[in-house]
Design brief:
The protein is mainly beta and 119 residues long. Helix content is 0%, strand content 54%. The strands form two sheets. Strands 2, 4, 5, 6, 9, 10 and 11 form a seven-stranded mixed β-sheet that branches. A four-stranded antiparallel β-sheet has the order 1-3-8-7, with no helix packed on it.
Protein backbone atom coordinates (compact mmCIF):
# COMPACT_ATOMS: atom_id res chain seq x y z
CA UNK A 1 0.00 0.00 0.00
CA UNK A 2 1.09 3.56 -0.61
CA UNK A 3 2.30 5.53 2.39
CA UNK A 4 2.88 9.28 2.39
CA UNK A 5 4.98 11.29 4.82
CA UNK A 6 4.98 15.08 4.78
CA UNK A 7 7.77 17.25 6.12
CA UNK A 8 9.03 20.82 5.98
CA UNK A 9 6.35 22.74 7.82
CA UNK A 10 7.01 25.32 10.49
CA UNK A 11 6.55 28.92 11.56
CA UNK A 12 7.27 31.62 9.00
CA UNK A 13 6.61 35.34 8.76
CA UNK A 14 4.25 36.77 6.18
CA UNK A 15 6.05 37.21 2.89
CA UNK A 16 8.37 34.32 3.63
CA UNK A 17 8.82 30.95 1.93
CA UNK A 18 8.56 27.30 2.90
CA UNK A 19 9.07 24.10 0.93
CA UNK A 20 7.06 21.03 1.85
CA UNK A 21 8.03 17.51 0.88
CA UNK A 22 5.85 14.43 0.49
CA UNK A 23 7.86 11.22 0.51
CA UNK A 24 6.07 8.31 -1.16
CA UNK A 25 6.64 4.65 -0.33
CA UNK A 26 4.96 1.58 -1.74
CA UNK A 27 3.59 0.85 -5.20
CA UNK A 28 2.70 3.99 -7.19
CA UNK A 29 1.31 2.18 -10.24
CA UNK A 30 -2.28 3.06 -9.38
CA UNK A 31 -1.49 6.72 -8.68
CA UNK A 32 -2.76 9.13 -11.32
CA UNK A 33 -1.74 12.27 -9.46
CA UNK A 34 -0.50 13.57 -6.15
CA UNK A 35 -2.12 16.50 -4.43
CA UNK A 36 -1.61 18.92 -1.61
CA UNK A 37 -4.59 19.88 0.52
CA UNK A 38 -4.76 22.05 3.62
CA UNK A 39 -7.03 22.53 6.59
CA UNK A 40 -7.18 25.73 8.60
CA UNK A 41 -8.57 25.74 12.14
CA UNK A 42 -12.36 25.56 12.08
CA UNK A 43 -12.50 25.14 8.31
CA UNK A 44 -13.01 22.32 5.85
CA UNK A 45 -10.02 20.70 4.20
CA UNK A 46 -9.42 22.29 0.79
CA UNK A 47 -7.52 21.40 -2.35
CA UNK A 48 -4.33 23.39 -2.91
CA UNK A 49 -2.42 21.88 -5.83
CA UNK A 50 -2.10 18.76 -7.96
CA UNK A 51 0.51 17.24 -10.24
CA UNK A 52 0.19 14.31 -12.61
CA UNK A 53 2.41 11.39 -11.69
CA UNK A 54 2.89 10.17 -15.26
CA UNK A 55 2.78 13.55 -17.01
CA UNK A 56 3.42 17.22 -16.40
CA UNK A 57 -0.05 18.58 -15.72
CA UNK A 58 -0.47 20.82 -12.69
CA UNK A 59 -3.34 22.82 -11.26
CA UNK A 60 -3.77 25.17 -8.31
CA UNK A 61 -6.29 26.75 -6.00
CA UNK A 62 -6.86 30.24 -7.38
CA UNK A 63 -5.69 31.96 -4.21
CA UNK A 64 -2.25 30.29 -4.35
CA UNK A 65 -1.68 30.38 -8.10
CA UNK A 66 1.48 32.32 -8.86
CA UNK A 67 2.78 31.94 -5.28
CA UNK A 68 2.90 28.15 -4.87
CA UNK A 69 4.62 25.65 -7.16
CA UNK A 70 4.06 21.89 -7.07
CA UNK A 71 6.77 19.64 -8.48
CA UNK A 72 7.96 16.05 -8.32
CA UNK A 73 11.15 14.03 -8.39
CA UNK A 74 10.29 10.49 -9.43
CA UNK A 75 13.84 9.30 -8.76
CA UNK A 76 13.28 10.19 -5.11
CA UNK A 77 9.56 9.31 -5.05
CA UNK A 78 8.91 12.76 -3.66
CA UNK A 79 6.43 15.54 -4.38
CA UNK A 80 7.18 19.09 -3.31
CA UNK A 81 5.19 22.24 -2.64
CA UNK A 82 7.21 25.42 -2.82
CA UNK A 83 5.28 28.21 -1.12
CA UNK A 84 6.36 31.82 -1.60
CA UNK A 85 4.97 35.18 -0.46
CA UNK A 86 3.10 33.42 2.30
CA UNK A 87 0.08 35.07 3.89
CA UNK A 88 -1.50 34.48 7.31
CA UNK A 89 -4.48 32.89 5.55
CA UNK A 90 -2.14 30.15 4.27
CA UNK A 91 -1.86 28.86 7.84
CA UNK A 92 -3.04 25.31 8.30
CA UNK A 93 -2.14 21.66 8.28
CA UNK A 94 -0.94 20.62 4.84
CA UNK A 95 -1.67 17.09 3.67
CA UNK A 96 -0.33 15.09 0.76
CA UNK A 97 -2.77 12.75 -1.01
CA UNK A 98 -2.52 10.09 -3.70
CA UNK A 99 -5.27 10.24 -6.30
CA UNK A 100 -6.45 7.44 -8.57
CA UNK A 101 -7.65 7.69 -12.16
CA UNK A 102 -11.09 8.92 -11.14
CA UNK A 103 -10.92 12.59 -10.01
CA UNK A 104 -11.36 12.83 -6.26
CA UNK A 105 -10.56 9.17 -5.70
CA UNK A 106 -7.95 9.67 -2.98
CA UNK A 107 -6.57 6.39 -1.73
CA UNK A 108 -3.80 7.49 0.58
CA UNK A 109 -3.20 10.48 2.84
CA UNK A 110 -0.22 11.60 4.88
CA UNK A 111 -0.42 12.63 8.49
CA UNK A 112 -0.02 16.32 7.68
CA UNK A 113 2.51 19.02 8.49
CA UNK A 114 1.70 22.32 10.19
CA UNK A 115 2.44 25.62 8.47
CA UNK A 116 1.91 28.77 10.52
CA UNK A 117 2.29 32.19 8.92
CA UNK A 118 2.60 35.09 11.33
CA UNK A 119 1.62 38.62 10.37
Amino acid sequence: QVELVESGGGLVQAGGSVRLSCTISGPTGSAFAFNWHRQAPGREREFVATISWHGDNTNYLDSVRGRFTISKDKTKNTVYLEMNNLKPEDTGVYYCAAEGARPGAYFAWGQGTQVTVSS
